[in-house]
Every structure is written in C-alpha cells, then in structure tokens.
Amino acid sequence: MALGNKGGSNVLCLRLQRQLLLVVVTLFLFFNAALTQDEENDGPYRGKYLGKLNSYHHQVSGDVYAVNEYTFLIVGFNYDGNGADTFFWSGASNRPGPQGFIVPDEYGKTNILDRYHNKDFTLTLPDRKKITEIKWLAVYDLNSQNNFGDVYIPEEFEPPMPQLGGTFSKRSHNVSSSSIEILDSKTIRIKDFTYDGRGKRTFFWAGVGAQPSSRGSKLPDERGYLDPIRKYNKETVELELPGDKTIFDIDWISVYDVADNENYGHVLINDGLNVPPSLVKVTKFEFSLPNCRQLHKDMQVSWEVFGPQITFQLSGQVAANDYMSFGISGSDVSSQMIGSDVVVAYMDEIRGYTVDYNITSLAPCVQVLGQNKGVCRDDVVGGLDSFQLNTYSRKDGINTISFRRTLKSSDDGDKEIFLDRSNYVVWAFGQLDSNNEPAFHTYYPKSDIVIDFNTTEAVNDCFDFTKSVDTPPPQLWERTRITDATVRTFNAYLGPSGGLRGYQGLTGHVSSGLAWYINGYMIPELYLKRGLTYTFKVRGGNNPHSPEHYHPLVITDDPQGGYDRLSDAKQSEIRVLAGVEFTRRGRPKPTAAGPLCLSRYPPSYDRRLDDNFPTFKKFNRSLITECVDEAPALLEITPNITWPDTVYYNSFTHGNMGWKIHIVDSYSNLRSGAKALSWSLCIILLPWLVLQY
C-alpha cells in the first residue's frame, strides 16, 4: 500500500514538473518576443527586424534589419578583425558553409574584413540577389571554414517595399489624385494630384484620428515651403514628413483649410505598413531662445524680448557660403520685400556676420542719380547698422547666428518692431556673390508671414532639420553655342535667369535674377573670328533712373560683369574691350544703352517653379516679351590679335548676367574639331553597331 502511494506521488510530481516547465518555457518565449519587439521599436524605424547576430567567435555581434528587397542594415556591429580570410557571406543552404557567396562590405568592396567597433552600415546583396532568395547572412572565414556569427532569414519573409495607398477623397476644390505611393517611412508620392488653389489658407496637413481635424499639423510642400499650397493640375508631388515624424505617426494626410477648418480631401494611412526606412538624415536641433517659428523646412527663427531689445537666432540648413535674411516687411498690411528692413546673416571660414540692409528695389545695390538704390547696406545709404552680433556656429551643415537690436531704432531707415500688434515679416536665403553681397534669393515666401513677438506663452512650431541623402542636382538646360560664320548680328535683350537649370547651373555663378538673351537663347556662347566686324543690337534698358532695368552691354575679360559696381582698384585689373568709354576724369561711361526689351513671366506666375521646365525651349515659350518701340543701341566690335581667346559679354551695372565669347582665328578649326568628334564617336560606337547587325 505504501509502495502504491509512493508511485502515485512520483507520477503527480512528474506532472507538476512538466506543467512548471511548460509555464517557464511559455514565459521565456513571451519575454523573448517582448524583448525582440522592444529591440525592433527602440529608436528610429530601421526596417524589418531580423534579429541579433548569433555570436560564435571573434566577438561578432550586432542587430540586423532588412531595409528593402536587397539591403541589410547592421546596427552596432562588432568584430575583432582577427580572422584570416573573413568576409560577409550569404547563401541558400540550410546553414552557413563553403557553399555561398561574398556580400560586399559597406563600401561595395570584397576585401577581407577589418576590425569593427559598434558600427552602423548597410550591406547590399550582389548581382541584384534578393533577401528572399537566401537563408542566412554570416561572418564567415573561408580559410578555416568557420562561422563566426550569423542571422537567419525567416521562412515566407516579406522584405520592406514601397506600398500603394488609397486616393484623395473628392470633397471640394477639385482635390483628387491617383493611388498614393508610400515610398519609405517618411516619403509619400502623390500622382495626378489636383487642387484648384482657391482655398484661403490651405496646406498639406497630417494628423491622427479617424478623420482630418484642426488638431493636425502642416507638412512642407514638395519644395520645403510651409506657405499655403499653390494650384496643382495632375502633377506628381513628393512630400517628406517633417522632423523625426514617420508614416507610423499619422493616420491621414489632408488638403486642409485652417481658415475655415475645412477638409477639401484626404487619404487614410494604413496601419503596420511594411515599408523601407527613410534615408533622410534627421539632425536634432535645439534652439536657445524661448520662441521659435519654422519659416521653411531648412530655416527657422527664434526670439526673445527683454526690455527695449529683442534677440533673434537664425538657424538654417544652408551651404557654407549662403546667407539667411529676415526682417520687417516694407508694408504694414502684407509681407513685402520692397521697403523692408532686414538682416543678412552669413559666415565665412573665420566668423559670423550680421549686416543691416534696406531694400528699395529688387536689384543689386547700384547708384541712381548719385543715390544708392536696390538691396543696399544701411551704412551705404546713410544709415546705421543696428544689429549686434552675439554668437555664431556651423555644425552638421547648419548655420546658427544670434544677434540683437532695439525694438525702435534711432536709424530712420529701420522699421520698428511692434509688441502691441502682429508684425508682417519677410525672409529669404540663397548664395552670396563674389563681394559677399546677397545674390538673387533661391528660397523666399510668396504668402504673408505674420509673427506676434510679444506673446504671453512661448510659441514653438519648429522641428528638426532633415536632409535627403545623395539628392542629384537638376539636369541643366541645353547649352547653346552660336558658331555659324554667317551670323554677324546679335540681338541682345533681357529675360529671367531661370532656376538651377538655367544661368546658375550653366555658368556656376550666382544669379542676379536677369540674364542676357542673344538671338532668342539664354546666355549662348558666341564664336567670333578675329578681323571680322560684328554688331550687337542692344535692348537692355536705357533709363539710368531704374535700378532694375538699366543694363548697357559691355565686353571685358572679366566673367562676373557689373563693371560700374566695382571699386577703382578692381576696375583697374579688368580689360574693357567694348561698350565703355572714359571721361577726362577717368570715369567709365557706357556707350551701348538701348531701349528695354524684356521677356517676363506671365501674371501670377511663381518663378520658384522655373526648374519644373525640362528644357529652355519650353521655359522660353512660357514667357511674354515686351519691347519699347525704339531703335536699339548698336555696339560694333572687330576682334583683333590683341584680344584674349575668351572674353565675356555682361551688364555694365549688374554682375552675373552674361557669358563667354570665344575669339577664334578660323571657323574651319571649329568644323575640323566637330568632324574629329564625329569620327571619334563612330570609332567608339563601331563595335556596338557590328554586334547589332
């Protein structure tokens, strides 16, 4: 009887042990899954988490993610570098072994691996192999055939890929689209997007919840602006979520009018999207003053009022030689550049600068009847520089410059900053010219910007700076060369300089906003023969009272132009070949100032869209040409043997408007060169042609 009881107790004990073991295993799996989920959700979204590298030898460790069909991201990778013949290795066998292939390292090389310490990088499978075609990724030594560490690809694994979403609902203002594409965790492409542009204060708007509401926030448009959006007609628009926000942080994207709290159309974002992580670099940035306003994706202003003074901080993700500008509008009822009082802030390799400017015309500072007009420094027009520089720094591609001024300046040319009402402001950023003066701004708002500098609670709508990785520059418009020996007359008139595809891209110089058009082309390169006479019919404006549209044509050996704006010392270094005569006092006087003929934008056109034109021909067709009905000024030249091989046509008053003239001894050399190029192309293409036929 006792033996039977003992046997029953043993059976019961075994059952309890099994149940306890089952509980322990279940808890282990639960906590392991939770730990894996925490690893996956810790920090920024990096893709689909595959797991930790199993470590066998040589201190191999790290976390592995799938970025897309072809690419791994390895975070915190470690390896002591002591393997003899060690590579990243992958294959389709059940476990790592000699049957596999080398995966190039983060630099695309297949070199033996060196030491790694807590490094993050991506690996791309070679020959367009896909992650779904392999079973593991390893750190493998081919010499000893030892596996130092590995991670396995789960069966039926689905790598992150761009996902299709819904279409914008058609509610009002003609809002519509094709299916949106969620390209990665921060980028949404909207195809065939349409909106009539007639809303009051309408933005791309994103937020959480079942339906769009006023509790959302602005999305920068496709050019990074936070202004009310323009009219669109079946256009492809790519939006980038601002700061550290990702697609997993929003439930919808709307075309939303904040003035009337009305949703014109929206699209819902699905949960759990398996999309690639964004390659956009997010730079954390903390402003030092209590109030901050995001002016553009790449620029923000912060401020603090203390007694009769106000301190500003401008922060911008700009090139090292770019300027940032901010100030009080020239109008009390709108944001207007003309008449505005602004600071131009920039840095050189040594220090930062804040310079007080007065804007009387949208042109570089020039003398008109003895007075300086245009974008001029206050100390040049008889005023005072009212800004006191505090601090400056450049870090991670971001310029940060702080300064102060009094709310009401003693300089009559300065605008008062009001605390009892809102202030209309203006801003811009762009490149400096060779004299460290602001050139035509690359980025600037088209809508009214209103700021209340005296708020009871701190104002802050700023977000972290973001920058796309390896964004290709826009393709330039076609270069034009006039080499026809029979062309002896050139019609020269003015037109807009275009965006990055136009003057700036073609010459590598900053732009003043206008450029010379010769025989219908923007800044063509001219080829003139020594000993022949050529005539320029000049229509660049002959009213010296106009700071914007007075452009006598000159020819010099200086590529920049703007001869009249240069100091006496700089003028003495330049050889003037045509278009200028000198008075008895040695002062330069232009001789080729003709009536104004100007190709201009149509009414309500936004010149910030210039780069949307794929060719100059299409851009030129969009312009309206208006010419004063007067005879042009004539500039005759006969290049001789003393002329340099390369000279430049430009404006007497403004810099960076013209381009090259090549002085040749014979046109036959050009034709010979063209024939030689044609024969070279034939020789290069001959093997391909043989293979084709």
From TrEMBL:
Keywords: Repeat, Signal. Residues 297-430 form the DOMON domain. Coiled coil: none annotated. It comes from the Eukaryota. It holds the Pfam family DOMON. CDD domains: DOMON_DOH. The keyword Signal applies. Residues 47-154, 166-270 form the DM13 domain. The keyword Repeat applies. InterPro entries: DM13_domain, DOH_DOMON, DOMON_domain, Spindle_Org/Thrombomodulin. Residues 1-36 form the signal peptide. PANTHER family: KNICKKOPF, SKELETOR-RELATED. This is Protein Skeletor. It comes from Drosophila rhopaloa (Fruit fly).
